Amino acid sequence: MTTYTYNIHNIVTVKSEIGLKELAYFQKNNACETPDLMVYASVKGKSLYQDAMSKISIHDCGEVRLEVSRWLKYSPHVLYVNLVEPLLRLILAGKGYALLHFACLGAPDGRGVLLSAPPDTGKTTCVLHLLKKGFHLLSDDMTIVDSNGMCYSFPKPFTISAHTLKALGYSPSIWFKCRSLVHSKEGRRLYRLLGELPQFPILTINALAQIIFKPPKLYPSELTNCEILDYIEPCKLFFLSLNGRNGTIPTDYAEEKLLSFTKEAYETPPYSSIFPRLMLNGKTYAELMNEERNVAHKLLQKVEVRQVADTTRSWHFKIEEEFNS
């Protein structure tokens, strides 16, 4: 059986019996004897979660072993988003890092820029506009941060809405619009509501839906030419907002916003049935979340934190001005 190996900045290594497109940037051909995470396309251990067609087992035996029903290889996006990335988040926290929900760019003058916003606000559109203006990419969605406030790239295919394509001057097809609708904020809201129903096979339903309506994902190179940097020291964090005032915001308030956006990005069903029950490397879920908070706190002590408000979602103009002045 083919095995895929991923080395994430020599911090976390992953071996998987299922290809993970979101980690393609980190794929390596050399074998990894002692991965931090191993993904198996069969379930042998005691299940943590089971519904109509999906069965999940996670256990820590030196390496973290994620065992999933073989059929989930046909929906690798669900496998990655619902299971692999939340596990990477916890493994990184156990090593003194955090996988936080914000975009990270390198300005043309070499300074690091962080962009944070609730999911589906328009952050990706803002990122793409800035890339076209000469900014460099580290990540669009999630960024790895160490305890010294250094940010490391975590580039994945962009989830592109029909609105984003239009804003960039493209004409999305009817089928692309349908895929975009399924994966929109409204589609995910419905998914969360269904996940709250008792005994509802939410993981199976989600996987089947995404086999039919594949996520509208495009690699950065398909949209714009940009350089991907491995790491950068950030100097500014911008919270993108549709209303409110422009200007500096308190660090403690920024910390709660940043962690709440990260929580919202991860905690989709059946997250609550699986991850809060885990213990990795001798640490409980609560302890790992506290480690994540500590890293976020240290980051915010080192950067200037500001809110950029614009009802037209044209934040890129104001951010570009910051680095041209």
Written account of the structure:
The chain is of the alpha+beta class and 325 residues long. 34% of the residues lie in helices and 23% in strands. A seven-stranded mixed β-sheet has the order 3-1-2-4-7-6-5, with helices on one face. The chain is globular. The termini are far apart. The mean pLDDT is 89.
Distance linking N and C termini: 55 Å
Q: Trace the largest sheet across and list its strands.
A: 3-1-2-4-7-6-5
Tell me the helix content: 25-40%
- The CATH class of the largest domain: Alpha Beta
How is the main sheet built? 7 strands, mixed
How many structural domains in the coordinates? 3
Q: What's the CATH architecture of the largest domain?
A: 3-Layer(aba) Sandwich
Output the structural class.
alpha+beta
Poorly predicted runs: none
Q: What is the CATH fold-level name of the largest domain? A: Rossmann fold
Tell me what portion of residues adopts beta-strand conformation.
Answer: 15-25%
Shape designation:
globular
- Number of separate helices: 10
Mean of residue pLDDT values: 89
Number of strands: 21
Radius of gyration: 19 Å
Using brief descriptors, characterize the structure shown:
single chain; 7-stranded mixed sheet; about 325 residues; globular; 6-stranded mixed sheet; 21 strands; Rossmann fold
What is shown here, in short?
It contains 10 helices and 21 strands. By secondary structure, the protein is of the alpha+beta class. The chain has a 7-stranded mixed sheet, covered by helices on one side. Strands 11-9-10-17-21-18 form a 6-stranded mixed sheet, sandwiched between helices.
